[in-house]
């Protein structure tokens, strides 16, 4: 039996190269699907202005993070630009047991780690309609210097190469269409037999249905 079979909630992983519109899509999904919760990561980087512990991130020290990682407390973790980022296994599992759907905004490496432990986690890769469109979006954000945009574009090719590892691919050309496709994936996952059985245990028992 896979790990997710005993959970009423579903686990979603959304991955994309920088500039593909992942965060915008995720925020729109969360706004219209209140039963989905975005997992809050733990990080060792310093809080930015306006960030609050427990809202954007759980902030901690490198020493504490490493100890917890060694103890297996993280579902996935990685070092990015000298800082550690990780997803708490306990928090994710506790919420899924109560029927809450959890969404992870992570990179392909983190998704690979999660998939090994939660084979039924739904992997969703957001693709740009073209590399030119990706470059244009990065420039329009006006948050990165030209050399940073170049670096992100170079990295995008390597990230997109891992798209075949995911069950679902959404081409974010028209935002409304992409959001509709993302929503459809989420709603379909909720109808999986394992999740329905966990959410409706008494009904399944009355009907003589025994989940294996």
UniProtKB/TrEMBL annotation:
Cell location: Cytoplasm
EC number: 2.7.4.8
The UniProt record lists the keyword Transit peptide: no
InterPro entries: GK/Ca_channel_bsu (IPR008145), Guanylate_kin-like_dom (IPR008144), Guanylate_kinase (IPR017665), Guanylate_kinase_CS (IPR020590), P-loop_NTPase (IPR027417)
Assigned keywords, A-Z: ATP-binding, Cytoplasm, Kinase, Nucleotide-binding, Transferase
GO CC annotation: cytosol
Uppermost EC category: transferase
Annotated residues for binding of ATP: 16-23
Domain Guanylate kinase-like, chain residue ranges per copy: 9-187
Keyword Nucleotide-binding set for record: yes
Catalysed reactions listed for this entry: GMP + ATP = GDP + ADP
PANTHER family attached to this UniProt entry: GUANYLATE KINASE, GUANYLATE KINASE-RELATED
Protein role: Essential for recycling GMP and indirectly, cGMP.
Protein name: Guanylate kinase
């Amino acid at each position: 039996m896979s790990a997710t079979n005993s959970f009423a909630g579903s686990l979603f992983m959304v991955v994309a190269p920088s500039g593909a519109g992942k965060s915008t899509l995720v925020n729109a999904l969360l706004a219209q699907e209140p039963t989905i919760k975005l997992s809050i990561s733990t990080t060792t980087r310093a809080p930015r202005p306006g960030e609050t512990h427990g809202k954007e991130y759980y902030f901690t020290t490198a020493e504490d993070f490493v100890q917890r990682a060694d103890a297996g407390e993280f579902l996935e973790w990685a070092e990015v630009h000298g800082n550690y980022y990780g997803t708490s296994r306990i928090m994710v599992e506790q919420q899924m047991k109560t029927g809450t759907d959890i969404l992870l905004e992570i990179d392909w490496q983190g998704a690979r780690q999660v998939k090994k432990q939660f084979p039924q986690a739904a992997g969703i890769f957001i693709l740009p309609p073209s590399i030119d469109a990706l470059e244009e979006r990065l420039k329009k954000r006006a948050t990165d210097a030209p050399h940073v945009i170049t670096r992100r574009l170079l990295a995008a090719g390597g990230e997109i190469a891992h798209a075949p590892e995911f069950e679902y691919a959404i081409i974010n050309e028209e935002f409304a269409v992409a959001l509709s496709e993302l929503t459809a994936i989420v709603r379909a996952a909720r109808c999986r037999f394992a999740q329905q059985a966990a959410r409706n245990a008494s009904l399944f028992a009355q009907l003589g249905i025994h989940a294996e």
